[in-house]
Amino acid sequence: MAVKFAALGCHLVLWDISERGNQETAKEVKGQGAKVSCYQVDLSKREQVYQTAEKVKEEIGHVDILINNAGIVTGKKFLDCPDSMIQKTIEVNSCAHFWTVKSFLPEMIERNQGHIVTMASSAGILGLNGLADYCASKFAAVGFDESIRFELEVQGKTDIHTTVICPYAINTGMFDGVESRFSSLLPILEPDYVASTIVDAILINQQVLYIPKLLYVMLGLKGILPAKCNYILCRFFGATALMDKFVGRQRSEGAN
Question: Dihedral, CA atoms, 30, 66, 133, 227, nearest 10 degrees?
Answer without folding.
Answer: -120
